[in-house]
Design a protein that fits this description.
six-stranded antiparallel sheet, elongated, alpha+beta
Length: 948
């Protein structure tokens, strides 16, 4: 049966259910109908048996009785509870009632209607066999069918009665039907009222029972449990959704503390107190009911969108203050019953009372369980034991988690059970000593101590002790901290501090420690300790061209091959591409030479890196150390040997000797003095003329750097340029040379404005060209001196193109955009081909002195090729190092048009160079002992033929 109660007049009464009172009543009326049928059968049978009948077909009548009896028995045995529980079970009752009417009509027919008055009352009975279980429409239909059937039967049998008697009998039938119908109607209504009252009573009892159960449930100290129970309890009042919310401190917004069946969009956000039913409760301070909530102004959009129609809300008072607001909602538009409102109010009151109790109990718990709270708030596991017997009396939750035991498993057990058997005696002795005043209150820092878990595993711990006097006696509290992960982290950290993260080899710090320990541990002089430093050759080129990933992979591959070859010796990665080996047992230079060759052989085969064959060589420096030596000294010696190996062609090994000590010492001193040379203005420029062989007139000057050392007189560039390049000092020195040369040329041009233009050539280091600010430095010098850009010539070496040809071209193009000219110096001594000239933005090619010194031999063809190639590409060709008239004349014959050298002039001081700039080459004194003569040089000057 549905929750709605059935009523008389319903066209479609609810389907009967076996556990519903109305269903039980329907089944009982069906049973009454069956008993009525049995009674009718008995009456008809008695009528047929007794004598005095007229026109009775006894055989047919008794046959009919047997059939009806059989049908009645079958109908009586049917499972009417299950039949009436089905959606169309009621039709079986209707069919059975029609069958009863037919049986009565057949009985009248068999008596030929002569005794039909006997069946007047009986014919009414089948109409109402089911009593009030039929709806009114069914009763009317069945009554009409019975009356019509009775009239038709009489007509078919020849009537046998008068009209007056027929009217009388029909009136009796209708009166009986009306009386029985009214009776059934009243009985049904009475039963329904009783049933409704019973249901309402049951609902009220159930409601208050549930409310009372909820009240008992929420009378606890757990505030969260209280909120959940109260909100869930509102479902017993017939509300689909509910929540309890709290007003924020600023009294402008509220938030949901707990909710049931509400959208997260509503429960997860703060809401204005002016929206929804909360604002009404705050105004009225009492329970409010909002009908048609979805259409009310100010309703919460989320609730309105979800279709909630009726909302009830009320205050929750806690200690006289409005502590929270209780809300309930349903999608049904209805007015809550008084008992529902009362129950709602009771729930709110119980919630407030429970919250008060929770606050009180919370305060009591804070007072009575203060020690326990401190125990649990401590981050470490705490075990409390009696000092007298060592039994555990209390443990923290952290201790349960750490050791794997529950509190019940630990309390009352000896504290020693938490220590491994192998160290139990020792660690218990430490605790006993501390109790007696001996020892520290904190152990496990310097010497690791161990604890034992329930599963038998051990863990490294630190422990601190403290004592406390209690009514039960003195106790000791032990705070235990698991340091297993920290110990492992410290181990990894120590490993990382002393090992290279890329290769896993020892790093420089560990190598130095090992070397220092080995030196101090040596008891005899022989054999010496051997240190080998290995540096990969041209590794930077591979790293720049292939990328750091390939470079790192190559370093790893080299490390693996070295480890395989020097098994047993100590190896470390000291830096980017530098490795160190500590070798013991080599007996002097002979064994060291063999070991050096073995190291070099490690590079005979290529290294396969990302499917690339990488051919690599190494320079090796070998130094010997004795017990009296310092580790730093030996490393410095080996480093000096590596540098000499590189200077001597790489892919080789060198031993350290005293000459290297002097060289290294001089290098250190040179570096320190170079740092001060700029500040002290110790650098100066001299100028060597560049001559046109067509008339021997001046076309320009080349600025050459000199270092006027305070104690070493004048130092030639060969004595400090390489050191300046290695240390990077060449960049500031080169910047000074650039600005000073441009300034000098600008000064000469200002003094002698009527003279033709002459250029200024400056040698530029590769380190300068690679510097990010070099192009800006050149632009600044031009802007500061205002000399024409095409008068500035920068001379570069071929080695600049070896590293990254395309990058070099881009850098030279940037310089050419400034309007200057570029010259390649010492052409032919490097590794670039003659064809590279076609790809470079050059203006001048300078033939190296090596080829000039060999003029008159097969090198004439080389000079001729350079001159021809220069003409083809529109390049001016300058021969360097001309010292004789024969060399000059031979160059003229070969077609070279420009030259410089001692034959024309040595490098000149600025004042002498200025005289030549102003008056021509005749102003210079001829070089002593040279073949040249000043009278062969014209005093006129001219510009470069291919100058811009």
């Amino acid at each position: 049966m549905s929750t709605a109660e059935p009523g008389i007049g319903d066209d479609h009464p609810p389907v009967a259910q076996s556990d519903d009172p109305w269903a039980r009543y329907t089944v009982q009326t069906v049973r009454g109908g069956i008993l009525s049928s049995v009674f009718i059968i008995l009456v008809v049978t008695l009528y047929l048996v007794l004598p005095g009948h007229n026109q009775v077909n006894r055989a047919g009548a008794f046959a009919l009785i047997l059939v009806v009896t059989a049908l009645t028995v079958i109908i009586g045995m049917l499972p009417w509870k299950q039949i009436l529980a089905r959606p169309h079970g009621r039709m079986a009752v209707y069919g059975w009632a029609v069958a009863m009417v037919g049986m009565v009509d057949l009985s009248i027919a068999f008596t030929h209607g002569s005794q039909s008055e006997l069946f007047v009352l009986l014919v009414v009975t089948p109409v109402f066999l089911a009593g009030p279980s039929y709806p009114i429409s069914a009763q009317i239909t069945l009554g009409a069918f019975t009356t019509i059937g009775y009239v038709v039967t009489l007509a078919a049998t020849g009537w046998g009665i008068e009209i007056a008697e027929l009217v009388f009998r029909l009136g009796v039938i209708m009166a009986a039907s009306l009386a029985v119908g009214l009776l059934n109607h009243e009985l049904g209504r009475s039963f329904q009222r009783q049933m409704a009252e019973h249901k309402a009573s049951e609902n009220r009892v159930a409601l208050w029972s549930r409310v009372a159960a909820v009240a008992r449930q929420i009378d606890v100290s757990d505030v969260d449990h209280v909120l959940v129970a109260v909100v869930d309890a509102l479902g017993t009042l017939g509300f689909e959704a509910s929540d309890i919310c709290a007003i924020d401190e600023n009294a402008t917004t509220y938030r949901v503390l707990h909710a049931r069946n509400l959208d997260a969009d509503y429960t997860s956000r703060h809401h204005e107190v002016t929206t929804g039913a909360v604002g009404l409760v705050l105004q009225k301070r009492s329970i409010v009911v909002v009908a048609d909530y979805a259409t009310k102004q100010g309703s919460v959009p989320t609730l309105a969108r979800d279709g909630y129609q009726t909302v009830m809300a009320g205050p929750v008072w806690v200690n006289g203050e409005l502590g929270a607001i209780l809300e309930a909602a349903t999608r049904e538009r209805r007015t809550p019953l008084p008992e529902q409102i009362a129950a709602f109010e009771m729930l709110a009151g119980q919630a407030g009372h429970a919250l008060e109790n929770a606050q009180l109990l919370e305060q009591q718990r804070r007072d009575t369980d203060h020690y326990r709270q401190l125990l649990e708030s401590y981050p470490d596991a705490v075990v409390v034991a009696n000092v007298a017997d060592g039994l555990i009396v209390e443990v923290s939750n952290q201790a349960e988690t750490l050791f794997g035991y529950s509190a019940d498993e630990l309390i009352g057990k000896p504290a020693s059970m938490l220590m491994p058997e192998r160290v139990r005696k020792e660690q218990m002795s430490i605790i006993d000593n501390w109790i007696q005043g001996i020892g520290e209150a904190f152990i496990g820092v310097e010497h690791t101590i161990f604890a034992l878990r329930k599963d038998g595993s051990e863990l490294a711990v630190e422990a601190s002790f403290g004592t406390l006097d209690t009514p039960q006696g003195e106790v000791i509290s032990v705070a235990v901290r698991d340091v297993t992960e920290r110990r492992e982290f410290e181990r990894r950290l120590a490993h990382q501090a002393t090992h290279d993260p890329l290769t896993g080899l020892a790093n420089r710090e560990l190598f130095m420690q090992r070397l220092d320990r080995s030196l101090h541990a040596r008891l005899t002089v022989d054999p010496p300790m051997t240190v080998c430093l290995l540096d990969l050759d041209h590794f930077k080129y591979l790293n720049d061209s292939r990328g750091h990933r390939v470079g790192d992979a190559l370093v790893v591959a080299v490390a693996e091959r070295l480890e395989h070859m020097v098994d047993g010796d100590f190896i470390a990665r000291l830096g980017g591409d530098e490795f160190g080996l500590l070798v013991e047992g080599l007996d002097g230079h002979g064994d060291a030479i063999g070991f050096g060759h073995r190291l070099l052989s490690a590079f005979d085969q290529p290294f396969i890196v990302e499917d690339i064959d990488c051919y690599m060589t190494a320079s090796i420096g070998i130094a010997f150390g004795f017990a009296s030596d310092r580790a730093e000294t030996i490393m410095s010696n080996a480093d000096a040997a590596v540098n000499r190996a590189k200077q001597n062609g790489r892919s080789r090994f060198e031993f350290f000797d005293e000459a290297l000590t002097l060289l290294a010492s001089n290098r250190v001193a040179t570096v320190a003095q170079l740092h001060m040379a700029l500040d002290r203005s110790e650098f100066r420029l001299v100028y060597q003329p560049v001559i046109s062989l067509d008339g021997d007139h001046l076309v320009g000057m080349e600025a050459l750097l000199r270092w006027h050392h305070p104690t070493r007189d004048e130092v030639q560039p060969t004595g400090f340029i390489s050191t300046a390049e290695d240390t990077g000092l060449i960049v500031p020195i080169g910047r000074w040379v650039l600005h000073e040369a441009c300034r000098q040329l600008a000064e000469w041009r200002q003094r002698y404005p009527d003279r033709p233009d002459g250029s200024m050539s400056i040698n530029v280091s590769n380190r300068q060209l690679e510097h990010d600010h070099f192009v800006n430095d050149v632009a600044d010098a031009l802007m500061a001196t205002q000399i024409p850009p095409d008068l500035l010539i920068l001379e570069i070496t071929e080695s600049f193109f070896m590293r990254d040809f395309q990058a070099a071209v881009r850098r030279l193009q940037a310089l050419k955009e400034l309007g200057i000219r570029l010259a390649i110096d010492d052409f032919g001594t490097g590794f670039s081909s003659l064809s590279s000239l076609s790809q470079l933005p050059l203006d001048i090619v300078k033939i190296d002195k090596t080829f000039i010194d060999s003029l008159g031999s097969r090198y004439d063809a080389v000079v001729t090729a350079v001159v021809t190639l220069g003409d083809a590409f529109g390049l001016d060709v300058v021969a360097e190092g001309i010292e004789t008239r024969v060399q000059r004349d031979r160059l003229v014959e070969l077609g070279c048009r420009f030259a410089q050298g001692f034959y024309f002039s040595k490098p000149l001081e600025p004042m002498v160079a200025e005289a030549i700039f102003a008056g021509g080459m005749g102003a210079a004194r001829p070089p002593g002992g040279g073949e040249g003569a000043t009278d062969s040089m014209s005093g006129t000057r001219g510009a470069w033929p291919n100058a811009g």
